[in-house]
Amino acid sequence: MLNLADYISVGQNSMYSKVIQHTDTSDTYPSELKNLLATPKLIHMAIEAGIQTIDPYLPDDYISVGTSISFTHTAPTSLGMTVTVRTTIVAIDRNEVLLEIKAWDEQGDIGHGMHRRAVLPRTAIEKKAAQRTRFLVNRHA
C-alpha cells in the first residue's frame, strides 16, 4: 500500500485563480443573477485546486478522486472579477486526504468548505469503471 506521507504532507496547498467569464454563470437563474458566478462553477474551481494540491506529487500510477465536498458560498462575484480558491491539506488518513477550501475575490471572502479525496491506483479505478459499464451493457442486452 502507498504511504501518502512519502509524497504529500499536512499544510501542503495549492491555489487556482480565474477571471469570471459568462461561461462561469448560469442562464437558468433569474435575470438579476445572470452575471454572477454560479456556485457549481466555484465548487468546480475548488475541486481543481484540490487535484493540484495532491496529484502532481503522486506516483504516475496513482490518482486522487473526490469522495465528498461540503461548501458554503457566502458572497456574490460579478463577471470580470478574479476568484482565487486555495485548498490546504489538513489531514491524511491511510489513502484519504482532507482539504480545507477557502475562496475569495477582490472584495474579500466568498466561500469556504471541506473536500475529501481518496488516493487510488489508476488501474483500480479503471477496473471498477469497466465492471460498472459491463453491468449497464448486460442490463440493456
Walk me through the structure.
The protein is α+β, with helices and mostly antiparallel strands. The protein has one domain (4-140): Thiol Ester Dehydrase, Chain A, CATH 3.10.129. It contains 2 helices and 5 strands. The chain has a 5-stranded antiparallel beta sheet. A hairpin with a 2-residue loop joins strand 3 (82-93) and strand 4 (96-105).
Let me know the number of strands.
Answer: 5
Strand content: 35-45%
Question: Biggest sheet: strands side by side, in what order?
Answer: 1-3-4-5-2
The helix content, as a percent range, equals 10-25%
Relevant CATH superfamily: Hotdog Thioesterase
**Fold-level CATH name:** Thiol Ester Dehydrase, Chain A
**Mind telling me which CATH architecture this is?**
Roll
Number of separate structural domains: 1
CATH domain class name = Alpha Beta
What gyration radius follows from the Cα positions, in whole Å?
Answer: 18 Å
Based on secondary structure, the structural category is alpha+beta
Poorly predicted regions: none
Shape: flat
Per-chain topology:
Elements: E1 13-19, H1 39-54, E2 62-73, E3 82-93, E4 96-105, E5 108-121, H2 122-140
Antiparallel strand pairs: 1-3, 2-5, 3-4, 4-5
